[in-house]
Amino acid sequence: MKMSDVAIIRREVEVTTVPYGEKMNLLPGQEVLVTQAMGGSFSLNVMGNLVYLDGKDADAIGREAVQLPSDKVDVKKGDDIDEALVWSQLRTIYDPEIPVNIVDLGLIYDLGFNRLENNNYHVGVQMTLTAPGCGMGPVLVQEVEDKLKLFANIDQADVVLVFDPPWNSEMMTEEAKLELGLF
């Protein structure tokens, strides 16, 4: 896909305004500009306003849902956690305004795994936001929880937003800095 593509909304779909985090509906026939398509979700420009479209609704703009790492492996209930695979799944979540995933942005501070009585796992995540008042915080938190629960061996996923230490650009990986031209 080119950097920006025009798409026509094919069915009514709920989107989230960026950076405010408010819900709104787009109607069939409405023209949008796809400004970012990464990790399965989309950032759309709608009459000069940026909105976030969840990947599960990709068909609303004529796209197909992206396969996630959890779709590509045969994880069964009770299997041990593959931490590298969990990190790979988290790398499919992108900040809607920045073309870098939340792991490489340095937003994930801690990841913990606890085995439950049924042999599955509870995953705890401590993460931050690029700005404490960002309205997209609840959207990103929900996306992290939802994508972790796609693994058959994860029953619970809880994300706690923390702001100490405050995020800064030094927390990004070298790859992220290079992508954003910060070198």
Descriptive overview:
The two termini are 26 Å apart. The longest helix is centred in the last third of the chain and has 12 residues, at 137-148. 16% of the residues lie in helices and 30% in strands. The chain is an alpha+beta fold. The chain is built from four helices and nine strands, in the order ββββββααββαβα.
Report the helical percentage. 10-25%
Q: Quick check: average pLDDT?
A: 92
Put simply, the count of helices is: 4
Q: Tell me the radius of gyration.
A: 17 Å
Number of strands: 9
Please tag this protein with its features.
183 residues; alpha+beta; six-stranded antiparallel beta sheet; three-stranded mixed beta sheet; 4 helices; 9 strands
Q: Secondary-structure map with pairings?
A:
Blueprint: E1 5-8, E2 13-17, E3 23-26, E4 31-38, E5 41-46, E6 49-53, H1 69-72, H2 83-90, E7 108-115, E8 121-127, H3 137-148, E9 154-161, H4 174-179
Parallel strand pairs: 8-9
Antiparallel strand pairs: 1-4, 2-3, 2-6, 4-5, 5-6, 7-8
Q: What's the quick description here?
A:
The protein has 183 residues and is of the alpha+beta class. The chain contains four helices and nine strands, in the order ββββββααββαβα.
